[in-house]
Write a structure and sequence with these properties.
The protein is α/β, with parallel strands linked by helices. It folds into 2 domains: 302 residues, Alkaline Phosphatase, subunit A; 135 residues, no CATH class. The protein contains 14 helices and 12 strands. It has an 8-stranded mixed sheet. Strands 9-10-11-12 form a 4-stranded antiparallel sheet, covered by helices on one side. It is globular and about 65 Å long. It starts with a helix and ends in a 9-residue tail after the last helix. The relative contact order is 0.16. The N terminus is likely disordered.
Length: 468
């Protein structure tokens, strides 16, 4: 028996190595999920994402906690909400004590790399191997041409070790200058109801759609590199659209078009192709899921998320009961803290300073912000005096009540606030109570968190609030 034991251990290790998947995560940048055809978008052309959806599993209800680039990436890479990992504002930092994908997967034999946009810090908390080939600057005009050799080299470098590779694209983040906007004649577009219909908006929306198609082309190229490596059958591919676009009511908000993300998963032979799921999942769940699939001990880490591996493999059709979100407006504009919770059917939003007006300096095209102005916003304000719909969306964006409740499953753009409806008072009370519980558990003080003092402390690696 003693002679057999080493052999059994070797066989078990080999079996684990064969079953632990390679992982390829492809991230878009500032892409509103329901502008994609796979989620009902009526304009964009995305043949590669459409094909990926047919080959895999589409998550109808996937969310991130904060609709800004840095906080949502920190959540994805750490498995922790913004208050716990420390990155609860844009252009801040996570706690130096935080651990992320490289820390958790490397002990299981994984090579963990990142190509493209990083936008997380400090380096100690996010020690990804740098993989060359994709632009790291999301506001460069134009985006630098991408090269695929670095991806291929990383994927094929060591045949004995699995890999985890994040390819973080910079489209369709503004400036919207990539792709062929002539594919999208402005007059033929079907604008979403949360967008004002002006001539300039249609022009800019066409440019945004062209960037979505450009991004989709990059997805196709990345998947071809994987196919050519011979490792596609052994690789879990995850595509996510990140947070919403830089149109009002999407990025920098807690509306569904801000914090709802597209998520598609493909793993040939393990994930049944052509399925959709209503299971509620969140960015914080992704790292625990990868660790579970790799055979790691999920219980040994302070995750806010939990593995949804059973959903991927078709063993469960439900996951979490609630997904949570927050918004701190500094340094993107004056303080305007927001918190939200959803059960996938209903969304409750609490605006903590409803007496204030909402201002976002980049979106409103203010000079000196370091990025391309958004000239469409001025046309919204100009036309609001004689266009009731334009006035409605401008007011919806800038003046918000203390509480908002939406039946998102039937009002996907959340245009009908039912917070004052007595027929759904019990639903509002349930979600409001759950939001209170979550904020307390996260050490979230609410409005005091959205301050220059707290943001500056986080930039310096000192965190005033949150669970440590």
């Amino acid at each position: 028996m003693r002679c057999l034991l080493p052999l059994l251990l070797v066989l078990a290790a080999c079996l684990h190595a064969r079953e632990a998947p390679n992982v390829l995560v492809i991230m878009a940048d500032d892409c509103t999920y329901n502008d994609l055809p796979v989620y009902g978008g009526q304009n964009a052309k995305t043949p590669n994402l459409d094909r990926l959806a047919k080959e895999g599993l589409v998550f109808n209800r996937a969310y991130l906690a904060e609709a800004m680039c840095q906080p949502c990436r920190a959540e994805l890479f750490t498995g922790q909400y913004p208050m716990r990992n420390g990155c609860a504002w844009n252009h801040s930092a996570s706690r130096a004590s935080v651990t992320s994908m490289p820390h958790h997967l490397a002990p299981l034999g994984y090579r963990v790399g990142l190509a493209g946009k990083v936008h997380v810090k400090p380096r100690k908390a996010f020690p990804f191997e740098e993989v060359k080939g994709f632009d790291t600057n999301c506001v460069r005009n134009p985006t630098r041409p991408h090269r695929l050799e670095g991806l291929g080299e990383f994927i094929k470098r060591d045949q004995k070790k699995p890999f985890c590779l994040v390819v973080a694209l910079v489209e369709p983040h503004i400036p919207w200058v990539m792709g062929d906007a002539s594919q999208y004649p402005p007059g033929k577009l079907k604008l979403p109801p949360n967008i004002a219909d002006t001539v300039r908006t249609r022009q800019d929306f066409a440019a945004y759609l062209a960037e979505i198609t450009y991004m989709d082309g990059q997805v196709g190229e990345i998947l071809r590199v994987l196919e050519e490596s011979g490792k596609a059958k052994d690789t879990l591919v995850l595509f996510t659209s990140e947070q919403g676009s830089q149109f009002p009511g999407c990025k920098w908000t807690n509306w569904d078009t801000g914090v709802h993300t597209g998520l598609i998963a493909r793993w040939p032979g393990r994930i049944t192709a052509g399925r959709r799921t209503d299971a509620v999942v969140q960015y914080a769940d992704i790292l625990p899921t990868l660790l579970a699939l790799a055979g790691g001990d999920v219980s040994g880490h302070s995750y806010d998320g939990r593995s949804f591996a059973e959903v991927l493999l078709g063993q469960e059709d439900k996951h979490r009961k609630y997904a949570y979100g927050l918004h701190n407006n500094i340094p993107e504009g004056p303080r305007y803290p927001v918190r939200t919770v959803t059960d996938g059917e209903w969304r409750y939003i609490r605006n903590l300073l409803p007496e204030e007006i909402y201002i976002e300096k980049h979106l409103m095209g203010m000079k000196g912000t370091g990025v391309l102005n958004n000239p469409y916003w001025a046309t919204w304000v100009r036309d609001s005096w004689n266009n009731p719909h334009t006035y409605k969306v401008v007011r919806r964006y800038m003046r918000r009540p203390a509480e908002q409740l939406y039946h998102t499953a039937h009002d996907r753009y959340e245009m009908n606030n039912r917070a004052g409806d007595p027929d759904v008072a019990a639903i509002k009370a349930r979600l409001s109570g759950e939001l209170d519980r979550w904020m307390k558990a996260q050490g979230d003080p609410g409005a005091p968190q959205d301050s220059h003092r707290a943001h500056q402390a986080a930039r310096e690696g000192k965190h005033l609030y949150g669970v440590k």
